[in-house]
Write a structure and sequence with these properties.
Length: about 140
Amino acid sequence: MDTIERQLDVYKSALDEYKKPFPKELPLMREIFVAKTRDEAVRLARPYLEEKYKVYHAWGQDKAMPKGDDDLSLDFDELTRDRFLFGSPDEVAEQIIGYNKRLGVNRMALGIHWVGMPHNQVVDSMTLFAEEVMPKVKQGL
């Protein structure tokens, strides 16, 4: 979140410098996984997300990331903080609302499936997102 906030400040400064208006839409891309509880989300999604980010680290992708947000070898719990929308429906709704309130994010592109993840887990997560997360986000905004 801090890294995005710093990058957003740079973006806003460039817009000001060139006398450009701030766009009406501020999108953000995030990985997302919703389960009934945070423990269940960790149990179900961890193997796939952890593997994905280990591969990113092996490829050296962290070298292209901003300082302070460039360690993809972090422990899973630390890696998920502010990087993913992750946990129970209440937690994920709170995270989405937080991006809107703190940064003004009003559109999201969400990655919900990773290599090897069973299709039923994806569908279950999408269903919880649609039925439980989005109504809470609507109410909270």
